[in-house]
């Protein structure tokens, strides 16, 4: 039997001594038989009570040890109703400390394991059982070597660890079901004689997220490089696109790609204008697509619907991951055509091979080399100013100078409009139109 709550176990054991003659000795075996405990549990609890001063003990013969409850002195009898004795306070402190340790051990999110000198686990917490994929009774007695990769030199690693002060690092751990997890560990030898502590944290998802984030940054850098390249290779590709094809064919409509955005979870949000179909029909089609993670109607009018969606895989995503940019995607009567651009320094054949490997029915219809015109700063400014009205420029300048774009805002819209002696709604309309033209210029690269 496990002793469970240490305070309760101690009380049960002391009750055995209190039921006997004062000073009568007992062996650990007698206590174990009396309470139905394992011998090791009785030994451990008796030792704790002796160390706290509740019991006294001595060795009898070569190996046998006995424990007894010392009889109360006259002084202790006189103070039986007074404050707790120093001995009882020490015992209570010991029980509280044990309870605190056990709570931390059991409730910790990280795996905590204690091994003996043979590297076999003698104590593990629930988080360790979850990480290793085994119940406690099956994890106890095992070594880390049983969860390591083939070729791992456990004997050498264990010997080096035992003579060290501490060890930490990363380790590929293979769970009982064969799944590999990447863990970081911190280990300390001899926290007690013959007891060695390991604290392990599963960082598999964090590591994968970090690697994916780095890949996203790499793709973004290449994507931006393509957008600003003076010379690009333009490809026109006919490809089966599960979303575009289905919409245009099933609804007998036209689909026009507007752009894409990378969400924080790595998914690509695509925006497409559907012309000639109601928003209700568009949503019905999207609800039937198992390859779509997310979709919503952003805007709708009598003739068109702006749709936002994220798919598990798509031709646009494959092109972006290869470093290209999607200039346009058009779909009509179930036929989808993509115009993609990539920098002249990219490996064109590698991109085509990568794309056709995922979409074997895709056909490269045309390939062109384009030299983009160089726009000077002066030309850029003049073209931008020409596209804005005087009212829009003044609204934009007032917002900038008054700190409207700062965080937190230095001025609110109402205060700026009042200073300009115009209605707030009028000022906001001019500002929104100016912002729209600026953003449209930036993302659509309006021609000079």
Please explain how this structure is put together.
This is PAS domain S-box-containing protein. Pfam families: BAT (PF15915), HTH_10 (PF04967), HTH_IclR (PF09339), PAS_4 (PF08448). Keywords: Transcription, Transcription regulation. The strands form three sheets. The protein has an eight-stranded antiparallel beta sheet with strand order 12-13-11-10-14-15-9-16. The chain has four domains: 98 residues, Winged helix-like DNA-binding domain superfamily/Winged helix DNA-binding domain (Arc Repressor Mutant, subunit A), CATH 1.10.10.10; 95 residues, Beta-Lactamase (2-Layer Sandwich), CATH 3.30.450; 161 residues, no CATH class; 68 residues. The chain is an alpha+beta fold and 448 residues long. A hairpin with a 5-residue loop joins strand 4 and strand 5. It has 17 helices and 16 strands.
The geometry reads as elongated
Using only CA atoms, what is the Rg?
A: 37 Å
End-to-end CA span: 85 Å
Please, how many domains?
4
Count helical runs.
17
* Uncertain segments: 75-82
**Broad structural category:** alpha+beta
Beta-strand percentage range:
25-35%
Helix content: 40-55%
Q: How do the strands line up in the largest sheet?
A: 12-13-11-10-14-15-9-16
Number of strands: 16
Mean pLDDT figure? 85
Main sheet summary: 8 strands, antiparallel
Domain PAS: 97-147
Pfam family, one: HTH_10
Organism: Natronoarchaeum philippinense
Protein name: PAS domain S-box-containing protein
């Amino acid at each position: 039997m496990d002793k469970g709550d240490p305070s309760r176990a101690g009380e049960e054991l002391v009750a055995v001594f209190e039921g006997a003659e004062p000073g009568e000795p007992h062996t650990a075996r007698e206590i174990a038989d009396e309470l139905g405990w394992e011998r090791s549990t009785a030994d451990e609890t008796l030792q704790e009570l002796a160390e706290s001063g509740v019991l006294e003990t001595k060795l009898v013969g070569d190996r046998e040890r006995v424990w007894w409850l010392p009889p109360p002195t006259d002084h202790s009898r006189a103070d039986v109703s007074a404050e707790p004795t120093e001995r009882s306070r020490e015992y209570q402190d010991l029980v509280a400390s044990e309870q605190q340790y056990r709570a931390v051990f059991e409730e910790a999110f990280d795996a905590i394991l204690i091994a003996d000198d043979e590297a076999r686990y003698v104590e593990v917490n629930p988080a360790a059982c979850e990480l290793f994929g085994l119940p406690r009774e099956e994890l106890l007695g095992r070594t880390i070597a049983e969860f390591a990769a083939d070729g791992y030199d456990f004997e050498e690693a264990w010997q080096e660890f035992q003579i060290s002060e501490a060890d930490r690092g990363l380790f590929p751990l293979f769970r009982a079901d064969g799944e590999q997890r990447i863990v970081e560990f911190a280990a300390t030898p001899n926290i007690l004689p013959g007891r060695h502590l390991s604290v392990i944290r599963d960082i598999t998802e964090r590591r994968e997220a970090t690697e994916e984030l780095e890949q996203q940054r790499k793709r973004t850098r290449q994507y931006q490089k393509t957008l600003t390249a003076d010379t690009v290779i333009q490809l026109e590709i006919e490809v089966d696109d599960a979303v575009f094809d289905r919409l245009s064919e099933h609804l007998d409509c036209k689909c026009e790609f507007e752009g894409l955005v990378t969400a924080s979870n790595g998914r690509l949000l695509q925006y497409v204008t559907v012309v000639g179909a109601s928003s209700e029909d568009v949503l019905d089609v999207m609800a039937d697509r198992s390859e779509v993670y997310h979709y919503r109607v952003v805007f709708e009018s009598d003739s068109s619907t702006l749709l936002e969606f994220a798919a598990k895989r798509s031709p646009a995503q494959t092109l972006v991951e290869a470093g290209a940019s999607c200039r346009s995607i058009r779909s009509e009567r179930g036929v989808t055509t993509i115009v993609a651009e990539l920098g002249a320094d990219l490996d064109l054949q590698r991109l085509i091979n990568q794309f056709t490997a995922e979409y074997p029915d895709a056909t490269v219809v045309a390939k062109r080399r384009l030299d983009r015109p160089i726009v000077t700063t002066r030309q850029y400014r003049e073209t931008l100013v020409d596209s804005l009205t005087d009212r829009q420029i003044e609204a934009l300048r007032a917002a900038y100078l008054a700190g409207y774009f700062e965080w937190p805002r230095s001025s609110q819209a109402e205060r700026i409009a009042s200073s300009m002696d115009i209605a707030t709604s009028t000022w906001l309309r001019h500002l929104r139109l100016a912002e729209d033209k600026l953003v449209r210029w930036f993302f659509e690269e309006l021609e000079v």
